[in-house]
Design a protein that fits this description.
Blueprint (H helix, E strand, L loop, with lengths): L43 H18 L7 H17 L5 H14 L4 H15 L11
Length: 134
């Protein structure tokens, strides 16, 4: 049995018979809908990683001006970069979703993209493969 954190909305929780995949997700400079992102095998660790991606994006997107959005975006990119390096998330999906969250929060696309690339690169130097401490 998979335990999904209570803050993940019901309509965004994986269904037991779903066979998730990232195929078909548009990355043409537009928003990446985190709710549609899925992993290749839909395992528990991958669903946990997707919940982490969704949570980070939701937190960033909700930040008001002058609240440390850029710093928070960099931190989120670092944390999620560790999951990318651990093979739990796709780098392009994470980049697109975080840039979209940053733009939603009011950052320019260029600023958000540079921040995300920097944070991802740093995080990918320290892989994390499980939902446990580390």
């Amino acid at each position: 049995m998979t335990i999904i954190p209570p803050w993940v909305p019901l309509d965004q929780r994986p269904q037991p018979d779903e066979r998730p995949t990232t195929r078909g997700v548009s990355r043409k400079g537009d928003a990446v809908d985190v709710r549609r992102l899925q992993t290749s095998n839909g395992g528990r660790r991958e669903r946990w990683a997707l919940a982490a991606l969704h949570g980070e994006c939701a937190d960033i997107a909700a930040m008001p001006p002058d609240s440390g959005r850029n710093h928070a975006l960099n931190g989120a990119a670092y944390k999620l970069g560790r999951l990318v390096a651990g093979g739990l998330l796709d780098e392009q999906d994470v980049h697109g979703a975080l840039v979209h969250a940053g733009v939603t929060a009011g950052l320019s696309e260029t600023e958000a993209s540079r921040t995300v690339m920097s944070g991802l690169a740093a995080g990918m130097r320290s892989p994390r493969t499980t939902g446990g401490a580390g």
